[in-house]
Amino acid sequence: MAKRVAFLGVFTALGLILGWLESLLPVFPFAPGIKIGLANIITLLVLYRFSWKEAASVNLLRIGLSSVLFGNISVFLYSLSGTVLSLVIMGLLKKTDKFSVVGVSVSGGVMHNIGQILMAALLMENRIILYYIPILVVSGVVAGVLTGLTGAVLHKHLPEEIS
Predict the structure, then answer these.
(1) Looking at domain 2-157, which CATH architecture does it have?
(2) For the chain, first and last CA: distance in Å?
(3) % of the chain surpassing 70 pLDDT
């Protein structure tokens, strides 16, 4: 049990670091808000090495810490909405055993973006922002493939003891 908690702590820290590193990358001027989602690599590893419950715990802790250290309540709400929606879908798809790590990652990337845009529409009381969904779907697919491929390689090569 202690080993499991230690690994989950390390994964939480890695997710926090990857999220911070991603915040240092330049923003795409033609598509604000689009990111690769590097922390999703950690989500995938925890989801596949441990369980949905642990993936949710690691993500909630990472989001909370990241919001306190680097963000604000808006950052927290956007991150939380995207993470909850993506984790639910990723967990359900993984459970079917019909999707690859990349397929699960793509669905997570798309759903994370949709969750965030829905939260933005709610907070800004403006539905026009929903027209941005097609761009976010495309970026979610691209980012999901990149993080999914990385997560799949890491999952394959990590020692079995990490679970």
Answers:
(1) Orthogonal Bundle (1.10)
(2) 11
(3) 99
User: Mean pLDDT in the chain?
Assistant: 92
Residue spans of the domains in the chain: they are: 2-157
- Dist CA 112 CA 120 (whole Å): 12
Own/partner pairs, 30-36, CB within 8 angstroms, 24+ separation: 31/135, 31/139, 33/116, 33/136, 34/135, 34/136, 34/139, 34/143, 35/143, 36/143, 36/146, 36/147
pTM of the shown model: 0.91
Say how far apart CA 4 and CA 82 lie, in whole Å. 26
Average pLDDT over residues 136-142: 94
Each residue of 4-54: pLDDT tens digit? Answer: 999 999 999 999 999 999 888 887 767 777 888 999 999 999 999 999 999
Q: From CA 94, how far away is CA 100, in angstroms rounded?
A: 8
Looking only at Cα atoms, what is the longest distance across the chain?
Answer: 49
Which candidate, 79, 74, 91, places its Cα nearest to that of 16?
79
